[in-house]
Amino acid sequence: MAEYDPAAGLVVDRNLALELVRVTEAAAIAAARWIGRGDKNAADGAAVDAMRKAFDTVAISGTVVIGEGEMDEAPMLYIGEQIGLGGPSVDIAVDPLEGTSITAKGGNNAIATVALAERGCFLHAPDIYMDKLAVGPGLPDGIVDLDAPVEQNLRELAKAKKCDISDLMVCTLDRDRHKEMIRACRAAGARITLLGDGDVSGVIAVSQPEAGIDIYMGSGGAPEGVLAAAALRCIGGQLQGRLLFENDEQIARAREMGIADPKRKYRVEEMAAGNVMFAATGVTTGAMLRGVRRTASGAVTHSIVMRSKSGTVRYVEGYHNFALKPAAFVA
Ligand code: VTB
Which of 199, 216, 226, 244 is the best mutation target for the ligand 1 pocket, counting ligand atoms within 8 Å of the beta carbon and taking the most? Predict the structure, then answer.
């Protein structure tokens, strides 16, 4: 069924969300061939290639706004690339393989992911770091803040959740730059899950009660921040993000991309506005999704797909028959 959104003046079919699952399934199946084979670039390349081909069957006029890089450095899914069969004008954010190193090592939590929004609705985040702070739905707005000390955020969150700080589980990337933050969390008495990679699913975990994560904090890729914001637009939860510029050149480039205030603290709806759809398929098993499982004649995939407009979250189990469809392109 088509939906008319007067604010955007565009017609976006809700079934597009299900189309996105085909796209992430294709990328995940292709990447899964490279699990544990020690070649992260090959895994990434396979995911990009499969995802790019899968987009050719989706009825959109899509523009990649979060992608694999600039046109001169990425042959496919580069920023500005036009994709799709033709249809409503939408912006696309992709991370064909979030967790290339995880996949290369056969670790946990690698996903293939895509988000879609009406034209102009995603923050055009440059490929730099973003400081992130996220908590799940149902908490008072602003209960935690990027500018507040770690201890204060944990204290306020524990109070709101009516538990002790020692009951809280923090999630962050295991990086040297987070040493001081991790020390402060531990000193306050909180528990911590350290991720090797994959902060898109790390952030989303705060809004999935079964994942057991109360708060995500720390810096990771800015494009990954926009993808996580797209997911939280659909399932709820708070995420604050601030771009971390390392030099004036990066600030100047961001200005060209439309970012006027380099110190701005973005909220979820400022990173992913309007009618948003998000899909992800597990490549390797994690808290959110099971990884691709190979069978004698095909593969089984596990995906999540959601829409901001309805708030519906679907888990999709796909049984793919390679005898009927080529393995690298399940569409
Ligand atoms: C994170 C993580 C990604 O990059 O965004 C991270 O989610 C940030 O960069 O999976 P560093 O690795 O330099 O910390 C990835 O690890 C890879 O894109």
Answer: 199
